[in-house]
Design brief:
alpha/beta, single chain, five-stranded mixed sheet, about 220 residues, 10 helices, 5 strands, globular
Length: about 220
């Protein structure tokens, strides 16, 4: 029986990706934070060259511009390292669909690797009390839960909207929200399915990526 509270107390990975801000975003920064028994262990961090200009909006948002990634590896050069890290693991993400679409822009096969993907945004929508003056975004949730008061030293970047900070926050949000869920086995199992990426959702992401690839191929031909 799958229990979210047990997943949060075990070993899991928290993922966050920042994109280039263009249509069909490509990753420019990826962070994967390891957690064990609810505590942060270490961060794996990559800057990625998206092989096209980063939009002004994205530069303002996360602080990464073309100069910073000019000598960074392309996604194809780090995808195996990332895939090996995610393989068979419990992965939590706050924008599950958006993060997988960005990974898929680099290589669609990489989204096959995690053993289970849990969406903390879905958890937050469920857990937030009615009329609570907080939105389910990472920054707002972190403030509401008091997470940022204990920020660790091991993060590569701590600026707002950096993948480092948001991946760490996502992991802490997962632990905090899992502790607020009803403890009975039936509810825990039901919510674990509700907050996890389903086979149907994964197929929809694959289909969207395939349509994008087909459109890009047709555009090149014409």
């Amino acid at each position: 029986m799958l229990r979210l509270s047990e997943l949060a107390k075990g070993d899991f990975l928290a993922l966050d990706i920042e994109g280039d801000g263009n249509k069909n975003q490509r990753p420019v920064e990826i962070s994967v934070c390891e957690f064990s028994y609810g505590a942060f262990v270490r961060e794996h961090h990559w800057l990625i060259n998206p092989e096209r200009p980063i939009s002004y909006f994205a530069r303002v948002k996360h602080g990464i511009g073309d100069r910073k990634v000019r000598s960074a590896p392309k996604f194809t050069e780090v995808k195996e390292e990332i895939a090996n890290l995610l393989a068979g693991r419990v992965v939590v993400a706050h924008d599950m669909t958006g993060d997988l679409l960005m990974l898929g822009e680099g290589d669609p096969s990489i989204i096959e690797f995690p053993g289970r993907i849990v969406c903390t945004y879905r958890m937050a929508k469920h857990a937030l009390p009615a009329r609570q003056p907080v939105t389910p975004g990472v920054t707002s949730l972190s403030a509401w839960l008091g997470i940022d008061r204990e920020m660790p030293d091991g993060l590569r970047r701590k600026t707002v909207h950096s993948s480092s900070l948001d991946a760490w926050r996502t992991g802490k949000i997962f632990v905090a929200l899992a502790g607020k869920l009803p403890p009975d086995d039936r509810t825990q199992e039901m919510l674990c399915r509700q907050f996890s990426l389903s086979v149907k959702s994964l197929e929809a992401i694959r289909s969207k990526l395939a349509k994008r690839a087909m459109a890009a191929s047709s555009a090149q031909i014409t």
